[in-house]
Amino acid sequence: MNGIHDMGGLHGFGTVKVDPNEPVFVTRWGSRVFCMTQVIDRLGVWNLDEHRHEIELMRPQDYLEWGYYGRWMFAMERILDRRNILTTAEINRRVDELSAGLKHLTPPANPDRNWPLQEEDKVRWGAWRKEVQVTPQFSVGQRVRVRNIHPPGHTRVTSYTRGKVGVIHRVDAQAWVFPDTRAHYRGENLQPVYNVQFSAQTLWGEEQAEANLFIYIDLSENHLEAVGEHQHES
């Protein structure tokens, strides 16, 4: 889907400032969100692409204001509520109790809670399947075009590469999960992933980008199409 999360090439955000002394976690609560997310990942509650898409559904203002781990927390709470593992009402009640300084907190009470998960309800987290073989459609050095797609759901194709022509730099011929379908539980659609080289001027234009500058982006096979020898670049 097109949204504020796809910020590559947008104007008005200024330069990226890098603090060489920045701590791993700026806030203590951020470290806790990280740890909770890692645990939930391994318990089979969600898959990576579902989690990413949930973040994409944030309001643009919230996405910009909540910060990196605030977005993780948003996705965590919504998926846990949807799975009936920990409801939004329970979370809000506990926040209100803690904010009021109550010493005796109300125990969570949800007789229909979907926990612990049954084995058949658990989700596989990994991004590739080593036990499956796939045959790449493209090869190193081949010219390809990124499909110009605008799905309403999740996609890993950045907006600034859509319709652009690049060259296959590396082939990862493992059986990678296709994020666009797995995010919505429409199958894993296992396929190779390609590292594609783009000229910066192809992506941004001759006036905005330096000559002889290249960008390398990983793309799934379903995101690419072959380019004939006589076809022009976008």
From TrEMBL:
The keyword Cell membrane does not apply. It catalyses: an aliphatic primary amide = an aliphatic nitrile + H2O. The keyword Lyase applies. Residues 130-225 form the Nitrile hydratase beta subunit domain. The gene is nthB. Pfam families: NHase_beta_C, NHase_beta_N. Residues 1-108 form the Nitrile hydratase beta subunit-like N-terminal domain. NHase catalyzes the hydration of various nitrile compounds to the corresponding amides. This is Nitrile hydratase subunit beta. Keywords: Lyase, Plasmid.
